[in-house]
Design a protein that fits this description.
about 220 residues; globular; two-stranded antiparallel sheet; about 5% helix; mainly beta
Amino acid sequence: KFRRRVLIGAAACLAISIGLTFFYRQPATPGIEDFVKSAPDIRPNEGDQVTIVLGQGKNLTLDEDQAGVAYSETGTDVRVGNQTVKQEALRDNKATYNTILVPYGKRTDLKLSDGTVVWLNSGTRLVYPAVFNEDNREVYLEGEAIFDVAHNPEKPFRVLSEHQRIEVLGTVFNVSSYPEDVETSTVLKSGSVRVSYSAKKDAAMWMTPGMRSAFNARTQKVYTQ
């Protein structure tokens, strides 16, 4: 199985602003998590090209020479390389969710409607709304990615995964949460982070720059280094 874990190094080259808060909270307002649970279980390794699944069921693929994916502020325009595709970003005033699948051996970058940029490692699935129209910004991650979050103090940005929740206002950080991995981890480059996990609520801690925190689902232990 091919996997290149080089994204953490890329994060070190980025300017990091405003600390992030990494915490476990109660389940999110019905929305993206419900969508993830009810959507077909499509895995990144089921294809050999980066694929974007739009809310209306249309699939877009990236060729080797295409630079990445970018959304307009309204979420209605999706640019894939030199091609722009129209989609319905809202239905009955509710967000349309899109999914990007990055198979093993591939990587790509994605610019969301709020300006947040995500670098996605191989074997990764990210579910996100075409446009953020609620009082928060939430995405769901399986795999590994770097997030360069557009600052917006009125709309926190949340990265949800199976074992953890991360909330930020605007910063750069690395998350690794592959479904087949025993460990779920985060790496802090700068700022202040409070970390806790759903299975270990008594293990909350404050992280300092340069620290790595990981939760082992098998042993139910938290490790830092």
